Amino acid sequence: MTEHFDNAKPGHVYLVGAGPGDPGLMTLRGAALVASAEAVLYDRLIGSSALNDVRADAIVEFAGKGPRGDSSKQEQIDARLIELARAGKSVVRLKGGDPLVFGRGGEEAAVLAAAGIPFEIVPGVTAGVAAAAYAGVPVTHRDHAAAVAFVTGHEDPNKPESSIDWPALAAFPGTLVFYMGVKNLPRISEQLIEAGRSADEPAAVVAQGTRADQQTVTGRLVDIPELAREAAIEPPALTVIGSVVEERQRIEWFERRPLFGRRVVVTRARAQAGTLAGRLRSLGAEVIESPAISVRFREDESVRAAIEQVSSFDLVAFTSVNGVRSFFTALSDAALDARALGGIEFATVGAATAEELRNHGVIADHLPDRAVSEGLLDLFGEVDLVGKRVLLAVASETRPVLGEGLVELGAEVHKVAFYDTIHEQLDDEQTAAVAEADFITFASGSAVHSLVSSIGGAEHLKAIPAVSIGPTTSAALREHGLEPAAEATRHEIDGLIDALLQIQ
Ligand code: SAH
Question: 229: Cβ–Cβ under 8 A, 6 or more apart, which residues?
Fold first, then answer.
């Protein structure tokens, strides 16, 4: 890697907590620093999307240690932080949870202070609080606990020089939260009971807390190690000991959401995947975003010609959000604005398409209830289109039905491809993730064709229930011998989600 260092500018290191995993639990300050950093050194336990917004030109390096992190690795991390900062970079040191809670953030800050490097500490939401909250366990509660202790379970409790004072912990008047203690859980439980803590005290282990695959096991101090073992709990996990765990029965919320634990593939173009993915996530699903198609707006001669004579059309019709976007992009590229559209009628298929048109300042005149091209044709059955000049601003591979139907109704149809949908290949990791999913959602026929080709054949999709947004998409599935498990009755994102909720 070539690095261009600018020595004139003083560097700065930000020790930032990334939170426990749920992307929404990073602080605003942390997210802003990550987005503007020139270098990011990140740890193992940060959430999977914590680095999504880093600058394209940023230096991004993994600087984590294994669960038993060795100190030579720590020295290398310290040296790299100093090197980057001395080179004038703004450096984010990104750690899971809070940087100072069992995160060596205090040690790294001391090294920076000694080296005379300016730094800031940006706290994060620590797992002990967040994973407990997502498991429905309040770490303090007026009826249960007036204090909470965060304890490392990393140390072998049997070693003579253990720095943990077990009798003091056993006597602690409040909730105990053990970090890093999955492996040592049997000995932690034994030591506490031996030192006088009640064997019957409620206890919970929360693994992958705040993530879509969160897993919680509850029991009593005496049997929680065995229950965690039976449930095959994997790190990162923490253990909460205290009567606060009883509250889970009443206030657990995260694992009760309708799609919790379901892995759902979203096969939309990247730019549009956001809404569907966001809504699925808030229903508890683990979303696998497979960018089956991406979109490229055309700037060719037929687009230019259509835009130049746009005022001569009586009607402009869109069947997709991208149709609207590509049309208005071309309009503005030609240095034209809304005034060129005066007097034209607009037709859209789909509520999202109409909404996008409205975002551009135009209210659709024709919007069928059924969000398919046939719905629009039904609507036009009652409108006199004879001799009317109609512009269809669509994708290059749009179905012919709308154009043909309009010609039959006597219109002069100009069907212009304003954009192409481009099929992207999935890499091995994406392919494996898709193969293990519980459901696949399809919001267009082209997404079906594209996923089938990029995953290497329909047989890889046979076992996974497919949810289709409407008849055109279902027909595309059947072309590949795939029968949709459900089809939306309203052909839009909300309808697709309803269909999925009904079969899950
Ligand atoms: N600085 C971090 C803790 C780092 S120590 C923080 O403030 O959260 C690593 C330990 O944190 C793990 O062994 C586990 O006990 C706990 N941990 C981190 N992320 C977790 C998660 N998502 N769910 C449960 N425990 C987690």
Answer: none
Domains and CATH numbers, the chain: 12-125 (3.40.1010.10), 129-256 (3.30.950.10), 263-292+424-503 (3.40.50.10090), 296-421 (3.40.50.10090)
Question: Taking the CA atoms of the chain, what radius of gyration do you get in angstroms?
Answer: 29
Give the three-class secondary structure for 44: coil
- pLDDT digit string (tens) for 269-301? 555 556 888 899 889 998 888 765 678 999 999
Ligand 1 proximity of 47 Cβ (cutoff 6 Å): no
What is the distance in A from the centroid of ligand 1 to the CA of 42? Answer: 15
- Please tell me the pTM assigned to this model: 0.73
Centre of ligand 1 from the C-alpha of residue 45, in Å: 7
Those residues whose C-beta lies under 8 Å from the C-beta of residue 138, and which sit 6 or more positions away, are: 132, 144, 244, 247, 251
Residue pLDDT, tens place only, 299-346:
999 999 999 999 999 999 999 999 999 999 999 999 999 999 999 999
What pLDDT is recorded for position 1? Answer: 44
Virtual CA dihedral for 334, 339, 341, 344, nearest 10 degrees?
-160
